[in-house]
Design goal:
Order of helices and strands: EHEEHEEHHH
Distance between the termini: 71 Å
Number of domains: 2
Shape: rod-shaped
Strand content: 5-15%
Structural class: alpha+beta
Strand order of the largest sheet: 1-2-3
Number of strands: 5
C-alpha cells in the first residue's frame, strides 16, 4: 500500500478537454485485493475513513474487502483495556492500604497488651492469676512453670526509638 498524488489533468486531460473542470491533484492510496490480487487505487481520504470505520468496500472485480478492525475501534478497545487495568490497580492499591491500616491497628493493640503485661509484672502482679506477690519471680517458677520467662527480642523499630 502506498500513497501517491495524481494530477488528473495530466492523466485524463484528453478525456475532460483542457482539464480545468478537475482542479488540482487528488491523493490516492494504492491497494491490492487480497482475494484476486488486482491492484487498484482509492482516494486517500476515503481510505482513511475505511481504516477508521471498518466499512466494507469492493475491489474492481467486485470482491468485498474491509479492514477487520478500524483504527478508531482499536483505540477504543485499547482505551477500555487501560481503563480496566487502572480500575484493577486502584482496587489493589485500596486493598493494600486497608490491609496496611488493619496491620497498624493490630500491631498497636498487641503493643498495648504487651505494655499492660509489663506494667503488671513490674508492679508484682502475676500475669496468669492476677494476684500480687512481693517475690513474683519465685511465684512464677513454682506456680506457673509452663509460663515462658524469656524476653522477646527487640524489633529493629523498637531499638531505633
Amino acid at each position: 500500500m502506498g500513497t501517491r498524488t495524481f494530477d488528473f489533468t495530466e492523466l485524463f486531460g484528453s478525456l475532460f478537454g483542457n482539464g480545468e473542470r478537475m482542479g488540482g491533484g487528488v491523493e490516492l492510496t494504492m491497494l491490492t485485493c487480497g482475494k484476486c490480487g488486482t491492484p487498484f487505487a482509492i482516494e486517500s481520504k476515503f481510505y482513511r475513513h475505511l481504516c477508521n470505520s471498518g466499512d466494507t468496500f469492493f475491489c474492481p472485480n467486485g470482491h468485498p474487502r474491509a479492514f477487520v478492525e478500524g483504527e478508531v475501534d482499536k483505540l477504543k478497545k485499547q482505551l477500555a483495556q487501560e481503563a480496566k487495568r487502572r480500575e484493577r490497580l486502584e482496587t489493589s492499591l485500596r486493598d493494600q492500604r486497608e490491609e496496611n491500616e488493619r496491620l497498624v491497628r493490630s500491631r498497636s493493640a498487641v503493643k498495648g497488651q504487651v505494655t499492660k503485661l509489663r506494667n503488671k509484672i513490674a508492679n508484682g502482679i502475676c500475669p496468669c492469676c492476677d494476684q500480687f506477690f512481693p517475690d513474683l519471680h519465685s511465684h512464677m517458677s513454682v506456680a506457673h512453670p509452663e509460663f515462658e520467662t524469656t524476653e522477646p527480642e527487640a524489633t529493629k523499630e523498637e531499638t531505633e526509638r
